[in-house]
Amino acid sequence: MPDFGRALRGQFRLEPGVDFLNHGSFGAAPVEVLDAASRWRDEMEANPDHFLRDVLPGALRQAASDLGRLIGARGEDLAFVENATSAINSVLRSLDFKPGDEILINSQSYGAVRQAVRHICERTGAKAVEPHIAIPVTDASRLVPAITPKTRLVIVDHISSPTGLIWPVDEFVSAARERAALVLVDGAHAPGQLDLDVPALGADWYTGNCHKWLFAPRGCAFLWARPDRQSQIHPLAISHGYAKGFTEEFDWPGTRDFSPWLATSAGVRFMQKLGPAAVRGYCHDLALAAAEKIARAWRQPLAGLAAMHGSMMAIRLPDSWQRRGAAREIARKIQSDFMDRHRIAVAIMPIDEALWARISAQIYNSPEDYERLMKAALD
User: Fold this and answer.
1) pLDDT tens digits for the chain (379 residues)?
2) I need a surface site. Which of 33, 38, 224, 225 has the fewest CB within 10 A?
3) H-state helical runs in the chain
4) Is 245 helix (H, G, I), strand (E, B) or coil?
5) How far is CA 213 from CA 153, 198, 250, 310, 318, in A?
6) What is the residue-wise DSSP string for 249-302?
7) Collapsing DSSP states into helix, strand and coil, what is residue 313?
8) For residue 144, what is the DSSP state?
9) What Å distances lie between residue 258 and 21, 48, 222, CA to CA?
10) Nearest CA to 125 among 102, 156, 91?
11) Which residues have CB under 8 Å from 24's CB, separation 6+?
12) Nearest Cα to 101, choosing from 175, 153, 143?
């Protein structure tokens, strides 16, 4: 196994003196991947007309093929987008919903996804169905009974953002198929954190971020579409590729900086050089050990069983940190306080009117990174 931990921190541009325990929110790209993105920008700036007209189309498709090999997908079934939220909006806005249709999410769905569904429902008369998933979670299959004959679309996280919970996507897909419902998997955190074979999941659409756990620069994600579903979906920005096919529509949303998408290949190479299985194993073991130690010290529960998580886990904050009617604003203030007072980057999540600390583990983290968080919350 490579020498993970502090030995690899120098390969990232992370600020000295800060414990970065929140890779899950925005990621952090290695220097060599940022340098690759910079080289793509330099090439573009040297001759923008030639690059954008002649070089970009083939380079984007090559990056999609490189990404596809890592997630078990064909490059022609992958389109690049800026983030998973953009992909989910593309699917939602491309489908025709009507009164009586139901869109199934759940209480752990990402906030931006919830708002996108709300917007579609307000415009179409469809109904958002949002079953409550109690924390700590012991049975992630509880969402299955909520899929009914009225369900038009199921949007399910592969890995829950608030808790790091890994959902049994195959169970949801199977249940949706029985009821003729479509499935969109929000895999924002999954690529790089899980060993993926996207087509084998059986979903209609799958989106994942590359800038979180695949080491790409920010502003890089993908939308995978089953071949027979590709003609239904269009990008948010309709441009010159309209009606010319799935990848041609998405590959040119208009003039933009394409370097994060093109640097995906460098992120994939970085992951492969370290060994995807070794990366996943190190990060899972580190997150689990740190979370269990913190939970014991705080005398608080984890958000779910260890086997249901990858490289992110949530621990309920000590009682002294809990606030009545815990809301996002309070969580943000506490999160800022941890950074300002202790130089600790950690996600604070309001879940079921309680405050939880969600920790992430990445290859630059070491066990000692979590010690100050454990002690700071007890001061």
Assistant:
1) 568 999 999 999 999 999 999 999 999 999 999 999 999 999 999 999 999 999 999 999 999 999 999 999 999 999 999 999 999 999 999 999 999 999 999 999 999 999 999 999 999 999 999 999 888 887 777 788 899 999 999 999 999 999 999 999 999 999 999 999 999 999 999 999 999 999 999 999 999 999 999 999 999 999 999 999 999 999 999 999 999 999 999 999 999 999 999 999 999 999 999 999 999 999 999 999 999 999 999 999 999 988 899 999 999 999 999 987 668 889 999 999 999 999 999 999 999 889 999 999 999 999 999 999 999 999 8
2) 38
3) 6-9, 23-26, 31-46, 48-50, 56-71, 84-94, 111-124, 169-178, 246-251, 259-262, 264-274, 276-298, 328-342, 371-376
4) coil
5) 27, 16, 23, 11, 29
6) HHH-SSS---HHHHTHHHHHHHHHHH-HHHHHHHHHHHHHHHHHHHHHHHT--B
7) strand
8) G
9) 29, 12, 13
10) 102
11) 161, 164, 189, 212, 311, 312, 347, 358, 360
12) 153
Tokens, residue 92: 């939602």
Instruction: Please tell me the CATH code under which domain 6-21+275-376 is placed.
Output: 3.90.1150.10
SS3 119: helix
Token representation of residue 188: 């924002």
> Amino acid letter at 89?
N
Per-residue tokens: 302: 């984890």
Question: What's the predicted TM-score (pTM) here?
Answer: 0.96
> For residues 63 and 55, what is the distance between their CA atoms, to the nearest angstrom?
12
In three-state secondary structure terms, 304 is: strand
Both tokens of residue 208? 């994942």
Q: Indicate the domain borders of the chain.
A: 6-21+275-376, 32-271
